[in-house]
Amino acid sequence: MLTALVLKAVLAAIIVGFVTASIKINMDRFFLVILMVFLVGLPFDEAILINLLVVLAAAGILFYRQSQGLRKLPRQYLPVIVASSAIGGLAGRVLGLALPQPMLLILFGIYAVGVGLRLVLVKMEPKGAVICPPARLTPLFLFFGLIAGLLSAGGKPYKVPILNRTFGFPPPMAYMLSTVGVASAITAALMAQLILAPGAITGEIVAWAVFFIVSITAVSLVVERHWSLTLQKYVSWTIAPILVIIGVRFLLVAMAA
């Protein structure tokens, strides 16, 4: 029984590391929640807590590896992004603790279907100079901060294209600004969790998180060495319909509950 569980967890880590590194959304590990629930067999609420820890660690790793890009970000946007994301993450975790699980499953299913559609329908555009008042970013980061605290989903598959196509940020800058938002939201969400329900983050939860952080990071580093636009294209087109199907399954499970 234990051997089978470990093998399932290893398979989940390999899939998540390969997919997220291939399609360049390393900071949105909602794939991991899906696999923890349907493959490993963990309860949905535990999967959310594990993923919150995994996403926070992923943010730290990304900041360390891309510190130069972080330093180049326009400073006028950071206070707005950090504050609005943190408020959203705090509110999202409070709401996540209050909502019944079927409602969370419905929201997660909608999120998964949306990401699947986004991967094939929305593409990034090259952009030049950015002319956007910082305050205009508040609703975007507040909303996706809420989603991060609620579902442990960073929202980068949505935020990055919006920052790029709507607000005019070049793709690398949009990616890094979104990462700052995710890190702020997840940190606030975990603080809310520790204050409101500290006993939920058990040693087992932390152990699972450490396992997935190490294994997914290792797989991602290997995939990055062989990454190409062709790989990104094929993985995106492969995973998109799967996400739609899984999202629909979440909806059906929730409605049957």
Please specify the SSE layout and strand pairing.
Elements (H helix, E strand, L loop, with lengths): L1 H21 L7 H11 L3 H22 L1 H5 L6 H21 L2 H21 L16 H14 L4 H11 L4 H26 L6 H23 L3 H28 L1
Helix pairs in contact: 1-2, 1-10, 2-3, 3-9, 3-10, 5-7, 5-9, 6-11, 7-9, 8-9
Key descriptive features of the protein:
257 residues, mainly alpha, 11 helices, 79% helix, globular
Q: What this model shows, in words?
A:
The protein is an all-alpha fold. It has one domain. The model has no long low-confidence stretch (mean pLDDT 89). It is built from eleven helices and no strands.
Compact description:
With 257 residues, the chain is mainly α. It has eleven helices and no strands. It has one domain.
Give the biggest beta sheet.
Answer: none
Q: Number of helix segments?
A: 11
Q: What is the count of β-strands?
A: 0
Give the radius of gyration: 17 Å
Class derived from helix and strand content: mainly alpha
Question: Domains counted in the coordinates: how many?
Answer: 1
